[in-house]
Amino acid sequence: MKNIVYILFLLPSSLFAQQNLPLNREASLSHEKAISFITLVKDSSSKDTNIFEKENVTSLSSFKPYIVPITYQKKNKNTSLICRKLNRESLIIVNDTSDRFHLTIDPLFNLEFGKDLADTSGEKLYKNTRGFLVRGSIGEKFAFESSFYENQATYSQYIDDYIGTTDELFPQTANYSYAVVPGQGRSKDFKKNGYDYAMASGSISYSPIKMFNIQIGHGKHFVGDGYRSLLLSDNSFNYPFARLTTTYKNIQYTNLYTSFMNLTNGGVKTPPYVERLFQKKTGSFQFLSINLFHRLQIGLFQGMIWEAADTNNLQHTNFNTFNPVIGINALSYGLHNKNNVLLGATLKFKITNSISLYGQYMLDDVYSSKGKGDIRKKYGYQLGFKYFDIFRIKNLHMQAEYNRVRPFAYAAENAYQSYTHYNQALAHPLGANFYEMLGFINYRLNDFFLQLKANYAVKGNDSLNNNFGGNVFKSDNLFPISQELDNISITQGMKTTIICQDFQIGYLVNPVTNFNIVLGFTNRIEKTEQITKNTQFVYFGIKTSIANFYYDF
Questions:
Q1: Cys-Cys link to 303, which of 341, 342, 359, 523 (CB 3.0-4.6 A)?
Q2: Contact status, residue 39 vs residue 294, Cβ threshold 8 Å
Q3: In angstroms, rounded to a whole number, what is the distance separating the alpha carbons of residues 34 and 38?
Q4: What is the pLDDT of residues 72-82, one digit of tens each?
Q5: CA 65 to CA 389: how far, in whole Å?
Q6: What is the mean pLDDT of the chain?
Q7: Can you tell me the distance from the alpha carbon of 535 to that of 182, in angstroms, rounded to the nearest whole number?
Q8: CA 370 → CA 28, 333, 367, 401, distances in Å?
Q9: Which residues share a beta bridge with 144?
Q10: CATH number of 2-544
Q11: Is residue 108 within 8 Å of 133, Cβ to Cβ?
Q12: What is the tally of helices (H) and strands (E) in the chain?
């Protein structure tokens, strides 16, 4: 029943003001299952399959957050106030008598406590997150949302190593220490071993006509149907954006314009007692999605990181940044340009109402006989499948995925033009020079749920200060003297194996904010020929989950 409440709150009604579904895998499982149906016929006896009409299914692309029409969240006066607020409704709901204004306000929190059993120091680990979520609409064309998190946390050693010191903001020279909390931005020290950090996001949405939506805000995006994306993911920190989405029958076209930031000043000296000057760059992305025969979805992608600051950090903008036509900039500038160009394609095929295959192909550069051999073969691909209601067991779902990216992908000759933002990759958390296999099993029984997740990845890391193509922040024009440019192989360098398993069992309290209580265990092994690192993290949390945060790297 809570799935129905959640979907009806967020999905189509007679209005066409539009908002976003949250970027969270667990929260979106019901939505993913609902749109997996090839043909949906309205049937009053069905509780799950009559939510969408056929045209609504075929109009959704794999550019996330999904943009969907708003349905007002109504108060159910037949249930007690405490029960409604605890597990059915937003904390505060405001509707005017004419239904022209709608507002909901909810608290956000993550109170998590745990311990790394492999850490002999016995340090207790925790997350203390407080925040809020505001969503609303005015009339039939205008909508808005805003959220804010304030956090204090301590992490397992491998995440401490990733964050490193807040004084070091140069990942192209640091040994994989990035001075940011994964996906959540810069931090300052808190007490002895903790971090204090905050994250805000929000957007305004305007739909002048039903087929066209404009959004301006600060947040993240994701291209694809997988757990990972090799094109554009929500791995990095929030960024300012403008998003234009046009939908006509079974075609959807998205233009996304962004402002990214390198956490470095490009060599410009910062005056004493002044906040460090960071270097900006802009991004433009186009995604064309076409749905065919109610089974097949094909997407074409172009991404471009534009040079927006000179060596003195003076800002400038290229007019072609705002070219809305997919493919034109790639043809004009080529794939090996100071403005970093990325091309891609996505595919999703629905075999049955329960089983679908999906994939991606990413092309960053191609071989040229006048170039430098294999070092210009920069590409990656993804293959995966999803199986809902396995063996007709309701709410038992499975997902499996394989990702592979060649060395030096996403990097640029000018390291400041890498396919990154805020010291993190814009695509896969592992950057480049890796292959990865992962899988999920999810099961839901009434309001109880469990999740099993397993990752196995092999990555080629740098060693002895040599660039073997795994660190996307380093120039792709810097490599060892001994490197055979016609023999660039995946996982070259210091081969590192990462194995991560996570088990969760929990209870869903309120689907509106994915408020849940969870008990879990994470086992992580990282090993090279020289060393093996173990993490055995047991944790208990009371939290709202409306965003993805990736610690499985």
A1: 342
A2: yes
A3: 10
A4: 666 666 678 88
A5: 24
A6: 85
A7: 17
A8: 47, 17, 9, 36
A9: 136, 204
A10: 2.40.160.10
A11: yes
A12: 6, 26
